[in-house]
Write a structure and sequence with these properties.
103 residues, alpha+beta, three-stranded antiparallel sheet, 2 helices, 6 strands, disordered N terminus
């Protein structure tokens, strides 16, 4: 987390992959964000800048499991550092999706 002190009382934080909940009155919308930043202002308003954001209900749990299995297999059979890195990124992304879906 990064906190930026300022005379206006603003602060900011880096977002990690996961679920972002937006509350408006009695409504709550949930999004999966890949990364980004949030800036909270002195008046309690927040600006959210996400690299990618997807409504949580649009993520297919079956495809997440399939992708996780696929990239796990790719990692076990990888022979070069590049293949290993690509497979690990796939595992990390699908693991983050899975964690978001399972709460």
């Amino acid at each position: 987390m990064v906190i930026v002190p300022a005379t206006t009382g603003q602060m900011g934080a880096e977002l990690k992959p996961g679920v972002l909940s937006v509350h408006e009155g009695n409504e709550t919308s949930k999004y999966f964000v890949s990364s980004g930043f949030v800036f909270i202002h002195a008046n309690s308003f927040a600006d959210i800048i996400a690299v990618e954001a997807l409504p949580l209900h649009q993520i297919d749990a079956n495809l997440v499991q399939k992708g996780l299995a696929e990239f796990t297999q790719k990692l076990s059979s990888a022979t070069t550092d590049l293949e290993k890195a690509k497979a690990q990124i796939g595992i990390d992304v699908h693991s983050a999706f899975n964690s978001a879906l399972t709460g």
